[in-house]
Amino acid sequence: MNAPIEYLLAGYTVEKDRRVLLQDPRTGYILVRMGECDGAHKSVSLYPNLTEVAKRFGPAWTRSQVFPRKPLSLETGRGVKIGDRPEQVFRKMGKPTRKGGSLQHADETVWSYHHVQGSHEKGAEYISRFRFRRDRVTGIELLREAIPGC
Asked: How many domains does the chain have?
């Protein structure tokens, strides 16, 4: 069964692969939108700080980037917000496709929602990932993976 598709995060779509790097001046949250492999892999993500960005992309890459400050709405198009509790995410997104621990943080739980458009041979998989610490959303990642990938 397909989960609902989430395309937008902080007003930025996962459908584009033009790089966007921004930092919310009020909260310090970092938005990273990237496209890789000629557009086969696209993502838009919110990270709580530069330390988390460095864990994902590496310290050298993170130090070499500029993150202009711009106010960001820290929510998805379906209204899931940084700081939401699990029951709020469940009300907006339904039952997650997968639930489990995090490879990045021992104290983190990850819910992910997977939706395939097209077929498993030719199409795209959309993944919405919500990271929880102390029962609050602290990170959001939206991914679009071409099938077959590169």
From this structure: 1
Quote the CA–CA distance of 21 and 97 in Å, as a whole number.
29
Under DSSP, the state recorded for 81 is B
Query: What does pTM read for this prediction?
Result: 0.91
**Is residue 101 a part of any domain in this protein?**
yes
Range of the domain at 123: 8-147
What are the tokens at 20?
Answer: 């966007």
Eight-state DSSP code of residue 59 = H
- Look at residue 102 and tell me if it is in a domain: yes
In a domain, 38, yes or no: yes
Q: Where are the alpha helices (DSSP H) in the chain?
A: 50-57, 59-63, 86-93
Q: How far apart, in Å, do the first and last CA atoms of the chain sit?
A: 25
DSSP state letter for 140: E
Using alpha carbons, list the distances in angstroms from residue 37 to 67, 72, 118, 145. Answer: 23, 27, 20, 10
Residue-wise pLDDT for 1-34, tens only, equals: 555 678 899 999 988 878 999 999 999 999 999 9
Say how far apart CA 85 and CA 124 lie, in whole Å: 29
